[in-house]
Amino acid sequence: MSAFPAADRLVAGIFLLFVATTVAGSVLAVFTTRIIRSVCGLALASIGLAGLYYFLHSPFLALMEILIYIGAVCVTIIFAVMLAEPDEPRPDKPTGRSILWWLGAIVVSGAIFWSVARLGLMGNWPTPAIDRKDGSVHDIGVALLTTYSLAFEVISLVLMVAILGAVAIARSGRHHE
Amino acid sequence: MNLLHLQERPAVYLVVAASMLALGVYGMIRRRTLIGMLIAGEIIFSAAMLNLMAVNRFFVSDPSVGQIFVLFIMGLAAAEVAIALSIIIAVYRNYRSIASAELSELSG
């Protein structure tokens, strides 16, 4: 019991808010028909995830999540929404085939949720050894430039090839119009 | 059940990650446009990252390994989005549609 019992409640409330934001954002991203609302759901889920990373003792990743997912990924998807015409076609009358697909999707995702959640809840997880490092930004930087330097460089190469490839693919269709 | 120290339990994070994975797979099956499927894929990526971070925080002795791994996944996800969106734009130029049902030239 800490000296400020209200602080515990406040922390628990903020944590539950972030959990609810994450799940609600994912639901919104998957179930709406308009794509722009779906992008907003992805942004909402990213905000919730950033909060969860903060609770997992990693404020650096929380900032990176907001920077990359909301600042880069969502904005890029919104640009594509402006360039293309992404709204889903109106659903036809529900035929037997589409109901079958819907049931199949429900069953598959339900089975995945049940099995993975059960694995997480029932799994016999090991308790770790004593922490030697604290996982600070300093530790991450040192590890990135020593132990993981090869992967770091290869990631930069992948990003450059991706940028060049994106430009090459998106540019080629322009001459045919 | 004590709600006060819920953030110290790994099960909460693992169940949230499992629900995001299930929602992403549902969206992957049900979405009928390419951008919608891409967004569902991003939800699946986020589920994997949350799972890695939870396991890293609670069950691993060196806490910086998982953060670096998640950072790499974020970089790869950004590259994947750039490539996928440029392909989507190219498809839209040629077909005037990105509904997945109409891109059926190869389906025999």
Quick take:
The complex is a heterodimer of chains A (177) and B (108). By secondary structure, chain A is an all-alpha fold. In chain A, 75% of the residues lie in helices and 0% in strands.
Measured by residues with Cβ under 8 Å of the partner chain's Cβ, the largest interface is:
A-B, 95 and 78 residues
Low-confidence stretches of chain A: none
> How many individual helices of chain A?
6
- What's the CATH topology name of the largest domain in chain A? Four Helix Bundle (Hemerythrin (Met), subunit A)
Morphology of chain A: extended
Task: Tell me the fraction of residues in β-strands of chain B, as a range.
Answer: under 5%
The overall pLDDT average of chain B reads 88
Q: How would you characterize the overall build of this protein?
A:
By secondary structure, chain A is mainly α. In chain A, 75% of the residues lie in helices and 0% in strands. Chain A has three domains: 89 residues, NADH-ubiquinone/plastoquinone oxidoreductase chain 6, subunit NuoJ (Four Helix Bundle (Hemerythrin (Met), subunit A), Up-down Bundle); 29 residues; 45 residues. In chain A, helix 1 runs antiparallel to helix 2 and helix 2 runs antiparallel to helix 3. Chain A is extended and about 60 Å long. Helices cover 73% and strands 0% of the residues of chain B. Chain B is an all-alpha fold and 108 residues long. Chains A and B meet through helix 1, helix 2, helix 3, helix 4 and helix 5 of A and helix 1, helix 2 and helix 3 of B.
